[in-house]
Amino acid sequence: MARRLCRRGRPPWRGLGSAVAGLAGLAFLAAPALAGAAGAAALPRVASASVCADQYVLALADPEQIVSVTERAAGPLSFYAERAQGLPTNRRALEEFLVLDVDVVVLDTHDVPQLRRTLPRFGVSVVDLATSAAHFDAVYDEIAKVARAVGQPARGEALVADIRQRLAVLRDRAAQAVGSDRRRLVSYFRPDGGGAGRGTFVHTVLDAAGFENLQARLGFDGWGGIPMEQLVLTPPEAGVTSFFDLRPNAVGNRFGSHPFYRHLARNDALVPIPGRLWPCAGPMLIDAAEALFEARDRYTPLEEARP
Fold first, then answer.
1. How many other C-beta atoms can be found within 10 angstroms of the C-beta atom of residue 103?
2. How far apart are the first and last CA of the chain?
3. In this entry, which stretches build a coiled coil (predicted)?
4. What is the distance between the alpha carbons of residues 198 and 136, in angstroms, rounded to a whole number?
5. How far apart are CA 31 and CA 51, in angstroms?
6. What is the mean pLDDT of residues 138-155?
7. What are the structural domains, with CATH classification, of the chain?
8. Residue-level pLDDT at 23
9. Alpha helices, DSSP H, located in 150-211
């Protein structure tokens, strides 16, 4: 693959004649190794520029392909943190990717616009991720897109097939668990008080796990929260929470000190889901759905919950 930055040194033709004989003598012996190296070299050199992009790259690319991941790839928000151990990290700076001679950079659709504009000028392919994809079908499309970009289409197909199979099993188990009864009514809460209504991947995961989303029942779309007055009038049976453990004393954790949150906690009506299972829409959403289903019998529904 062509190098994009000029390198200083002696002219490449100097001493060429004296090297030809030696190279010719080694060519026959080296042929099998060179063929194998050429096959490996055919795979693009890949980097990721967000924690969500990290998940796709770590799930689909060979470790040898991965030039760098973000500094958060091995952190608590990363589902594939173990795979990121020991990999070089980047701070999402343009010069980093150019110096490392990257072929493909995966990033979020609305993130780091400078990279999106500039990298293609240097021959670097940019893969935009729809990290808020609302449905599993959209996640399948993103997996296929990244898999093609990193030269691993078969691995992408296998990952999609695995998620489809697990999702079918989960939906069947959820339907059996619900039976003739109604779905349990829950609401999703973030530390800042935000929630998840219709048109979000959290809503899709709640549905797949056999729960009814209070925010959707009340007609709320997107990532806004439910007004506190509405929660008091129409409380859920339980609160599904994520990310509260990452910044317990931060200003952005104001909902953690709210009386309604404390009411849920006192009554064992909280269902904490690790944030690494759904920092964004990605291959790990199936793990979030399975974790939710397994937690259905590990909380006490609020007595005030409305049918």
1. 21
2. 62
3. none
4. 14
5. 40
6. 98
7. 46-129 (3.40.50.1980), 181-294 (3.40.50.1980)
8. 31
9. 153-178, 201-208
